[in-house]
Design brief:
Low-confidence stretches: 3-9, 615-639
CATH class of the domain at 465-623 and 635-668: Mainly Alpha
CATH topology of the domain at 465-623 and 635-668: Butyryl-CoA Dehydrogenase, subunit A, domain 3
Largest sheet: 6 strands, mixed
Oligomer: single chain
Amino acid sequence: MLSPTDLEVDEHLDCIPDWPSGPLDSARAKGTFNWKLMKLVLDGDSVVRFKHKVWSVLASDPIFKRTPWEEYSRDEERRLTFARLKKLVDYKLASEEEYLNQPHKIPAFVQAIGQFSWSLIVKRVLSYEYFIVSCKMDNGDRDSSLVDDIMNFNALGAISITELAHGSNTKELQTTATYDPIKQSFILNTPTLEATKVWSGVLGQSATHVVVFAQLYTPDGSCHGLHSFMVPIRDPKTFQPYPGLRIGDMGGKVGLNGLDNGFMTFQNYPIPKVALMNRNSDVTEDGKFASKVKDESKRFGITLGVLSSGRIFIILFSISNIQSALTIAVRYSAVRRQFGPTNGEEIPVLEYQSQQWRLIPYIAASYVLHNFFGSLFLDYVDFFVTAFNATSDAQMDMGAEIHSLSSCGKAVATWMARDAIQECRECCGGHGYLKAAGFGELRNDHDANTTYEGDNNVLLQQTSNYLIKFYKEKVEEGRPISSYFGSVNYLDDIETILATRCSGHLDSIPSVLSAYRFLVCYLLKSSYLKLADQTNKLGDPFVAKNATQVYYLRSLAIIFFEAEALDRFQRFLDEFSVPDEISKVLQQLGLLYGLWSIEKHMTILYESGYFSSIQLTPSSWISSPSSSQSSSSSSSSSQLLTGPSTHVKETIINLCNQLKDNAVTLVDSYAPPDHILNSSLGTSDGKIYENIFSALQNNAGAFVKPEWLEELANSPAIKSKL
């Protein structure tokens, strides 16, 4: 989330088209803020304009034309994705210099294309951006021709890490690259079936080059660990694999079927010595291994940071999917009418408390996570520039912190998107189950995000390890707790924080943040003590850590992320000036996200003693839907709130009610154009019934009798011998 300058200047809004008039007009009229200004607050002027440029190009090219009811075979989807990829490369929507000078345009491009097709953008990033960055990060100029080929669509790349038997545990990958000093080359081999490379995107049918991760062996038989190699695998003209390789497509998947994931084995496959990507280490001509970075911990920290980019962008994928799903569900809910007061007209389903409670907290989460991604991405750019353009002791700390934040962020964001898509689908009833609604494709394509770039539960261990290390050093060595980007700094006051108790209501973002910091400190200390106890009992640290995951380390990592996301949102509200009507809504969204998230952890807050069972009453500034009732009725209602948990729930409901009239304008502020959203239920004109009926009558075979029907229906029945 960025804060544009001169928000009141009309010239910033000239590239944002108005939504068409229709059944959503009345819902939009209820909004208390200008949705175009909110769009600028979310992304900033340059990103808004850049997305508009990208989407306009797609709208003008017939190859990107589609309808919500279209169905493709896997081969048709692959062909179309490849053709669209070629067009994207030809368009050159932004230059390399533009991306370097305005790095925020990189995620803008990824989101703009991803909301159109996740298969397309994943294939684009893997085959294009990843390879260009990989080549330029490497030493020497031997890959300059390959970069030119990629940029001119004369080559396509892939990354090959995962093997049949190993994914998350990369240290145990088995593919070997053995140096032969006589031939001045490495020999790649797949020693076992389990070492078969799998799940490599773009590898299945179209990649010409692959960055292969393999164990490097020198002639003396020594293994020097995992290294990456730039490996040519197919003739770029015929796309036939070279001898010594066996490459195949992995077949149909749950989603992302426009992306050709492949498997590959090596049989004494030679690659030149220069294929080793040797930024940090190399092998001499006579076969001696040489590391260029002597400080192993520093090298490891930098590596962790660099590898975080994939997880950071998966957070963006997840946020984009939440936004798309909510746009469909909220617009539909604002128009769809069911039931109503006795003898009255039917009312939009968005007016029902249950529908608000199901959808509006996800709107709040979409805004908070949007800001978190933007903030973390800027941190990553800072780290990337520092790591590769300067020598600094901070590189390791920066990399480790970004690794920790991206690990827990990827886990929480992908799970939230999974749940949000399903909730939105169910909120749209039976019509939501139509392919033309768009939820099925969203759900299926998103599913991979919860697994690739690291299983979520394994990634949460990365974050908890990071936090436990800090606390252990403080307790056992007296070291202060601090980090480059400050995400852990408050933990240095852990004992002071643990001595605090809730002194009033959780009715502001700072009060929720205080409770969250207490939770993190409480779980950090509890996890450390539990881990120490299990180590004493079980002896082996690995076994002890395994016995301390559930309810301790796993919960610690999740709560740490939720606290950090809310803290970054509060910092945005503190540091940037926005119009009052927008500020008020953002404050409500931040508080709703905080309370909705922390409600899951109320048991721990009671258990820890942070809350007592004292009676609480609603905060005066939170207006209740029943405020128009008599004072005696209000007094009676107040007496129903007997504790902090009930107060939190009532505040969540009240905030949902306050935000319901802004629900449509809130999703309008980040909704992509209709041709990108591609949903019959979520079109911006709100004409849901016309659009649904169009999908019904235009889908292939709507009025066609199946060829097999008559024959099967009239064939004689086969009597059972039983």
